[in-house]
Specification:
With 99 residues, the chain is mainly α. The protein has two domains: 38 residues, no CATH class; 55 residues. It contains four helices and two strands; from the N terminus they run ββαααα. Strands 1-2 form a two-stranded antiparallel ribbon. Strand 1 and strand 2 form a beta hairpin. It binds zinc ion (ZN). Zinc ion binds next to loops.
Amino acid sequence: MTNQTFCRTCGAEILETSEICPKCGVRQCGVRQFGVIQNQIKNPGFAAVASCLWVGLGQIYNGEIGKGLLFMVIQMVNALLVWHESTSDFALRTLILNL
Ligand SMILES: [Zn+2]
């Protein structure tokens, strides 16, 4: 009963996973797409992926905008420090090689 749904056209009991109603042959994609959209509204998996792409995105997505922005600023400062470190290191090595 848990994975059963009803055809939106003829009302026959069908599997939730079936794309086409075996009784009337009508595609059930409208119902399925609606379900997918609903899942995307608060999807912790998506939030985790967003956080991986850019720190703070997941927090903003979850409604924690202040926390997300704070994480983004920390990430930017970190990136700047790493960039500064690597460029100054490169400049130093170039200088040593040129001496
Ligand atoms: Zn049907």
